[in-house]
Design a protein that fits this description.
By secondary structure, the chain is mostly helical. It contains 4 helices and no strands. The protein is elongated and about 60 Å long. The termini are close together.
């Protein structure tokens, strides 16, 4: 028996909501990682020259955590949901950056952050797929 169109529409809407919430959670996790890194830099435990690498690592970790949230709650295809969460996180970063600082990332930093967000989301999609394998159908 096939699902009705209303059920598929409801599933799509539910997944879209969880993708956006996962992007917001990814933003919060990245902010917490960057806050901890800023404390470490100001204490002298970490050098300032590692700021770019820490930013990329925060994006990967944030996208992974937000993607795991979205993949776990959505219940649909894990990899596209994870990648979409990473893309939503990047768009949230870009929007807040433009609104707060009136400038977009320069010198290829935007592409680097986009790749970090997408890789973190894809990792969450793959990990979510491994944690909760596909159910076998009975005939």
């Amino acid at each position: 028996m096939h699902r009705k169109e209303e059920d598929q529409g409801a599933l799509l809407l539910r997944c879209l909501i969880w993708v956006l919430l996962g992007g917001a959670a990814a933003f919060a996790v990245a902010l917490l990682v960057l806050l901890g890194a800023s404390f470490a830099i100001s204490a002298g435990a970490v050098g300032e020259e590692l700021g770019g690498r820490i930013t990329v690592a925060a994006c990967v970790l944030g996208a992974f955590c937000g993607g795991m949230l979205a993949v776990g709650r959505c219940g649909a295809r894990a990899l596209p949901v994870g990648v979409a969460t990473g893309a939503a996180f990047f768009l949230i970063l870009l929007t807040i950056g433009v609104l707060a600082f009136q400038s977009a990332p320069q010198e290829g930093r935007g592409v680097l952050l986009l790749c970090a967000c997408l890789c973190g989301g894809a990792g969450a999609g793959l990990a979510g797929r491994l944690i909760r394998p596909k159910k076998k159908r009975r005939k």
